[in-house]
Write a structure and sequence with these properties.
Layout lengths: L6 H63 L6 H24 L3 E19 L19 E7 L4 E8 L7 E3 L13 E7 L4 E10 L3 E7 L8 E7 L3 E4 L4 E2 L2 E2 L11 E6 L7 E7 L7 E2 L5 E2 L6 E17 L3 E3 L2 E3 L15 E2 L4 E7 L1
Parallel strand pairs: 4-6, 15-16
Antiparallel strand pairs: 1-13, 1-16, 2-12, 2-14, 3-9, 3-13, 5-6, 5-12, 6-7, 7-8, 9-10, 10-11, 16-20, 17-18, 17-19
Helix pairs in contact: 1-2
Amino acid sequence: MAVVTDRGQQLLIGGLVLALFLTALVIVLNGALYTDDLQTRGAAGQTLAADDYEGELSRELGRTLDAINDRGKSDRSALEDAVLDATSVTSDLFTRQYASGQAAYATTEAVTTEEGKIIKQDATQDATDDLMTDKSNESDWKLATRVEDTAVRQFEIQTADIAALASVKDENSSDAGSISDTFYVELTGNNGNTWEVHIFKSSPSGQFTVATIAPDDDTVTVDIRARSNTGLSIDVTTGEVNGRQVFPFAPRLSQPYNITFQNGDQISGSYELTLATGEDTNTVVQKSNLYSAGSDEPYVSPAVYAVNVTMTYVAASRWTCRGRRTPTGKRSSTRHRTPVGCTAAAPTAREPITE
């Protein structure tokens, strides 16, 4: 027969009390730390908040812009209207988010766009040929000429087809002559110097390999930048391979330069390149080597190269009013209304944001 006592119940109740006490202590300590953080942020914290707002808005507008450009619209007017509408919606969402929390006032205005073109081949679609040749199946061909660094963005190349790549022995991967027949992007400066990004298969290791050759008057140096067993996603302008920054973009290359694909029959995959083509640029897209949007690939279509946005951000600080502190009043986009007898720090502004 079991003997029932109160000892077990007393131990259980004691354990629950101790757990509740420890939980309360953690909450109090966390509250103290949070309060101390708020008290020590000051003006520096407000500046960081403004920087956060600018950075997040810029990244989101960039993603929105790229998504609309990727649709391959042939009507420039419709494209620009779509970008402006999306920019307005995105800006409004960020304004509401920050105005309800960190900012007393946040807004964007004076939205303008910069004209561009996008060159693209999408291997996930039903392209008749995923090799990176031009519309006439030429393997060495120009995409654009007279390009400046400020006129090129989102130059991305993806491949997962190891069988399509030219093969180079592992021990020869760093030899310029041995990789000369592989696929590569070539940028040729106005003085004839070149910068190259090569993509090939190392053998017998069987790895996707990325190498660069920078302009040099004395020697030709091959730098192995990345290897992968599963495929490659390369952003030429940022120097990222599979999300990791591994090389600088066109160091010491004279401008303007021409952009060429060499040995385009030695790679299969997707690519895209957005170029500024407005009145302030001299970029010439080689349309004769490309299809128009909607007919076949690779194609060229209108794009918005950049969206310029003027941003105003006012930190949610407090007014100092005759020895007492009151919440911040509402502020408009043209004037910042200050209650009588109160002073406030000047607003933090950032302009313009370009994406």
